[in-house]
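Treating backbone geometry as a discrete language has practical consequences that deserve illustration. The amino acid sequence and the backbone structure tokens for this protein are reproduced below.
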Amino acid sequence: MSNIKIDNQVNRSKVAYPIIFLSLAIAITVIYHQVFLPRSTNLDTLLFYTTLAFITFTLVVLFQRFVNDPSFHIPLSIGWGLVFLASVEKLNAEMLNTINFENENFFTAMIAFGFALSAIGFYKWTQHMWKQEQYREQQHRVIQLYNSLMTHDAGNDLQAVLGYIEAALMTPEGCSPKTIKLLEAAEAATLRMAGLIKAFKPDEFESEQALVPLLQSIALQAEKVDLQLKTKFYAQPGTENLKVAGATLLQIALTNLLRNTAKHSGNSPIAEITIFRNNENLVITISDRGPGIPEGLIGSIFERGGSNEEHGLGLYLTKQIIVACSGTIEFVETPIGATFRIVLPIAG
């Protein structure tokens, strides 16, 4: 809460800078025109200082809007603000022909000081941006390292586990039917995890794949992993060969939705999956017959930490993946259970 208050105070102070400078400029102009009468004018000089005043005030507004750190936006705003006020004063002095040696030097010094102050702020800002870029590059290298470790070491370990499970299934003597089913579920879960690790490979996001067979495979695998889950699948005729981008990542998102159905839809969960074409998009609906999502959580189920632990991170990641694939996902309120509608552009 204290951080929010500090942020609000910073935002209020940032908004005040352009208002203060504009108010001072208006006051200076009114005073000049009340005290002095218009005289001869130099149009070139007037145009120059009008342009300078406009540019510097625009810079004050831009830095106020986009630079957040006070150590940057304060010198930038004050520096450009001083140049703006000096330009307004010089403009009025030229317009009313009140310029003399003393105020000419004052305007020049004020403009020079404003440029110097804004240069200091700009230097600090560029140094900060450079450090941020260095930090991002370092984080990128760390992520690449973790990616390599996951795709290589964890992938190898999963392949070993999968080999043991397959060996056990090839020699089922002495195993009860229930043990066989559990081994098959473990095999399906391992394959699903291997698919997740595969998604971390850089070239996998660009992969295109037919959505209908992909979703059929995901549904079959989900039934093997969650023994109680049953799926009902319907695809509109003509959609069987239509492809979407980012198929490997989409597999994770769609698996998350089916996992939620298996976890939150009672003892005999049923997931109903439909796919149909709508213009240049494929529309997927995934529905269950469970208790649904509490009304108070509906508005935040796709936010990170915005819902309870039962739905939070899985649905957040699901949405991020689908958005990354240029798609959308929404929760559709129905009398029974929960329904999610996904819209994905057809590739090619």
Notes: Confidence is low (pLDDT under 50) at residues 1-10. The beta strands are 208-210, 230-235, 243-245, 270-278, 281-288, 328-332, 339-345.
